[in-house]
Design a protein that fits this description.
This is ComF family protein. The protein is an alpha/beta fold and about 220 residues long. It contains 8 helices and 9 strands.
C-alpha cells in the first residue's frame, strides 16, 4: 500500500502547472504586461492594485486538484495540508530569494476563521498549512496575529462586490506588526477580496509588506 499523500494523477496535474501568473494576485496570464524587467502584472492589478504586495499560488483551482482543497477543508484530510505547505515553501523560496534582507518575511499567519466556524470545523485549514510552511521557511508562525471579529457569510455564495463588503471590516490585528513583512496563508484564493481586506487591516496597523501564499487559485477573479 502506498504511503504517498497524492496519487500520481494529481501529482502530474500539479507539476504540469507552468502558467505565467500575475506577481501580485497570481491570476494566470495569457497576454501579459511587463511592469518591470522581472515583474508581470494583470490589468486589474495595474489599474486598481490590491493592498497586498505579492501572491504565490501553486496551481489553478480545477479538477483534479480542487478535490484536494475540498478534502482538506471539509473532510479533515490534514495530511494534505503538509503537502500544500511543502510545495508552497519551495515556491516561496524562489520569490523571497529575489528580495533583499530588509524585505524577507518576519511572520507567517493564516487567514483566521470566526470562533463559531472554528468550533464547528474543529481546525483552521489555513493554519494547518501555515504552520509547517513557516517551519520549512525558517520563519516564525502565529495563529493569533489576526482575529476575525465578524462572522461573515460564506464568500462562495457572493459576487465580487458583495465579497468585498462582506469582509471589509471582518479582521483586527491582535499583535504588533509595525514594520513587518507579514505572510498570509490560505488554501484557496478566488477573487482575493478576503486577502485584500486582511492586507488593508495589516497595512493600517503598520505592516511594511504583505505576501500571500495560497495552494490553489481560481483561473479568473
Amino acid at each position: 500500500m502506498s504511503h504517498r499523500t497524492l496519487c500520481s494523477f494529481c501529482d502530474e496535474a500539479w507539476w504540469n502547472e507552468a502558467r505565467l501568473r500575475c506577481t501580485v494576485c497570481a491570476v494566470p496570464l495569457s497576454g501579459f504586461r511587463r511592469a518591470s524587467l522581472m515583474h508581470y502584472r494583470c490589468g486589474d492589478c495595474l489599474t486598481a492594485p490590491p493592498a497586498f504586495d505579492a501572491t504565490v499560488a501553486l496551481a489553478d483551482y480545477r479538477a483534479p486538484l480542487d478535490a484536494l482543497a475540498v478534502g482538506l477543508k471539509f473532510r479533515a484530510r490534514l495530511a494534505l495540508a503538509h503537502e500544500f505547505a511543502r510545495r508552497l515553501a519551495r515556491s516561496a523560496f524562489d520569490v523571497f530569494d529575489t528580495l533583499d534582507g530588509r524585505d524577507r518575511p518576519d511572520v507567517v499567519a493564516p487567514v483566521p476563521l470566526s470562533a463559531r466556524r472554528l468550533v464547528e470545523r474543529g481546525y483552521n485549514q489555513a493554519w494547518e498549512i501555515a504552520r509547517p510552511c513557516a517551519k520549512a521557511l525558517g520563519v516564525r508562525s502565529d495563529a493569533t496575529l489576526v482575529r476575525r471579529v465578524i462572522d461573515t457569510a460564506p464568500q462562495s455564495k457572493l459576487d465580487l462586490d458583495a465579497r468585498r463588503q462582506n469582509v471589509g471590516r471582518a479582521f483586527v490585528v491582535a499583535k504588533t506588526v509595525q514594520g513587518l513583512h507579514v505572510v498570509i496563508v490560505d488554501d484557496v484564493m478566488t477573487t482575493g477580496a478576503t486577502l485584500d481586506a486582511l492586507a488593508r487591516t495589516l497595512k493600517a496597523a503598520g505592516a511594511r509588506r504583505v505576501t500571500n501564499l495560497v495552494a490553489l487559485r481560481t483561473p479568473k477573479n
